Amino acid sequence: MDGRSLEQLVTDVAGRLMPADSTTSVAAATEVLRDLVEYFGVDVSFLRRNDHTIGATVLVAEWPQRQDVPDPDPLGVVYFRDADPVFAAAENAREAVIIRPEPSGYQDRIRSGAGVVETSMAAVPLLSGPVTTGVLGFIKFGDREWSTREINALNAIATLFAQLQARVAAEGRLRYLADHDELTGLSNRRMLLGELERRLQPGESGPVALLFLDVDRLKVVNDLLGHNAGDAFIHELGNRLEGRFPDDVVVRLGGDEFVIVMSEPMDANAAEVVAREAQLVASTPISLGTEEVGRSVSIGIAVAKPGECSVGELLRCADEAVLTAKSDGGNAVVVCSDEMRAANDDHAEMEMHLRAAIRDGQLEVYYQPVVDLESGAISGVEALVRWNHPVRGVLQPDSFIDIAEAANLSGELGRQVLREACRQLAQWNAMISGTPLFMCVNVSPAQLITSDFVDSVAIELETYGLSGGSLCIEITERAVMHDLAHVLVTLRGLEELGVRIALDDFGTGYSSLAQLKVLPVDTVKIDRGFVHELGVDHDDLAIVHSIVGLADSFGLDVVAEGVDSGRAAQILLDLGCRYAQGFLFSPPVKSDRIAAMLRAGRRSSPPLRVTTLTPSHP
């Protein structure tokens, strides 16, 4: 034993294991085992993990590493059902076990695996709550006694190993989920894009055939039997497709959409034959409890030669084909046509010009005032990007945002808008007195899951001398549902900067209430669809009243979008909605028009009569 105390030994082990991850865990564990062998004066140390799925204990690391390992290795994977009492005890052990030399099945296994005649052992369980996740073991060729202090130190070290194994297992789960659909276990969109990128490289075998499947009228199953039944149907359908096409890449895109990428080169005619087979697989009734449920599927087919088509173009062709199949009543197979390809070419042309526009800074930011309904003053502005297309004129975001996201351009586009919005806000605040303006900026799903997004926001705030509270990031339900786990990390990072979060288009998504409970949201923005006919449509009035009440119960601010009439503005104020934006006050305008309004005293409209007031500031 070296001169370190047991306490120092545990500290040293913690320092080695805490930084380890899935790629370095075995090497780190092996180094620690080597150190423990030397410290305790034993001959062998080993680390094993329990795989309760297969009912076995699995060797993770050992020291010294055996040179002549039998094949199969009797120490590699030991199934509890076949194990001698010592290995079997490792399945649910809760306390350290000390074994002294005596004839046993364990001694026989060690003799066959390591060639040692007589051994003593200390085995310390790795625990994670009520579950025994593994064992840390020490072997002495001959006899050895273990003191209580030594066993306590080994228990502490075993806890460190258990924490490392838990981290490795969590990382493995995250890697799996990154490429697989959680409901079905099939490949997901990420893996699909990687596979198509590889298959469409010049020189690869082709043509590459892709089948896009969309289940017809699955909503009926969800409405009548519940969403759990719908999920069970999707799960079983995924299993059937994977079973029927085991050599091909079967992907669940999400919802009721699947994609099959044929592994062998295939033309459109052959792909159509395969699509008919997929329809038969899908249409076979599936048992959901006491019900037998059958659904037809619509299938779009796209075929491309490697080197002549991008991944985005192939997917868009298939998507157009399946939309055509569904528009004809469903249960149809449609091959991407020349007309569809023409539409795809138009999309590609838009993408090309958009790339140039983003690269050359040709996109322009317009601004729409957010008005205090009580005073009529401008409290803030929302940044809204416009594209002055060389042929099509000024385009609204709806015309090109989806193209930007599909082409992975939304990140750069979003950074340009954020940078310009922050620059402009700093300039405006420098020219006004009183409470500074705030700036609302919309972000895309891609931005929210980008690892450096929070840092980029912090940089812009620092560059232009802005406080976090002067910036409001607007997100939509679609952005949140894109990847909730990563989105939460981003939003919490923004929250630490003091940046405010607004949930845009509130009331249009089925999970809006659930999101208010989970997300660090400060403001909800009432969708313009509920505001446009406010005062005419009683349903809209009821919805807006409910949203304002819900926001108030959560302590959130409310901004109404699409306010086009004085009547709607007065109703909103009476209901307790203090802030609004819309054509009543100003359409989205260039920065110089906002500057003119601010020079005129920040007045956008006359104040309204106040009957109900929410004094909070968005």
From TrEMBL:
Domain EAL: 347-602
Organism: Rhodococcus globerulus
InterPro entries: Biofilm_reg_signaling, EAL_dom, EAL_sf, GAF, GAF-like_dom_sf, GGDEF_dom, Nucleotide_cyclase, Rev_trsase/Diguanyl_cyclase
UniProt superkingdom: Bacteria
Domain GGDEF: 206-338
Protein name: Bifunctional diguanylate cyclase/phosphodiesterase
